[in-house]
Amino acid sequence: MHRLNEHADIFARFATLLSYPAPDLKDRASMLAALLKPIGPPAARALNAFVQILDAMPPTHMLEHYTRAFDLAPLAVPYLSVYLFGAENPQRGQFMAGFNAAYADAGHDCQGELPDHLAVVLAYAAVAPEESWDEVQRLCLPAPLKHMRRALEAAGNPYQHVVTSLEHFVKHVTAGELSHA
After folding, report:
1. Would 136 be classed as within a structural domain?
2. In total, how many domains does the chain have?
3. d(C-alpha 2, C-alpha 77), whole Å
4. Is residue 26 part of a domain?
């Protein structure tokens, strides 16, 4: 029997922030920042910057920022395989097929998205066997998150703070540096 990822709830919460914005985006971001504060202060600080932006902006503007960040002609393509293999590399298909097989084994649904979409991958943490998730977070997340963060920072997009927070969290989880308070 496999133990599920102990940080699955946090990854699932990041998945909701990196999906199309729901009306309660600010509440979700605030709750996640509070959860991160005792275990990953740099991740919490980055997410609090996002919450401050949400406080000062009408919700409809965040829909625009999300679309610019991750949808039509995105600043940061949300598909991990693009960063790992390149947009036109046939290995992308093999990579996605591997995710599809892992998702089928775990009962995870992509909900209409490609299997390498960042939010879909993060939601997988809730059902992934620990060994499988450890491999995903160690090998599939760091480089894409770094590229996404840089692109979003360069454009001044508010989602840079969510990606920065997630990047900090992944770095500390994989290094085993999180506090367990």
Report:
1. yes
2. 1
3. 32
4. yes
Q: Residues 106-132: pLDDT tens digits?
A: 999 998 999 999 999 999 998 999 888
Looking at the domain assignment, is residue 180 inside a domain? no
| Residue position matching structure tokens 């036109």 | 88
The CATH number for 108's domain is 1.10.3480
Answer yes or no: is 143 within a domain: yes
What pLDDT does residue 181 have? 38
- pTM exceeds 0.85, yes or no: yes
Give the Cα separation of 82 and 85 in Å (integer). Answer: 6
92: helix, strand or coil: helix
The token pair at 110 is: 């992509």
Segments forming the whole domain that contains residue 132: 8-175
Q: What percent of the chain has pLDDT over 70?
A: 94
Alpha carbon distance 31, 11 (integer Å): 13
Classified as helix, coil or strand, 8 is helix
Neighbours of 167 (CB within 10 A): 20
Backbone phi, then psi, for 110, in 5-degree steps? -80, -10
Inter-residue contact 52 to 164 (CB < 8 Å):
no
| pLDDT of 179 higher than 80 | no
Question: Residue 97 pLDDT > 80, yes or no?
Answer: yes
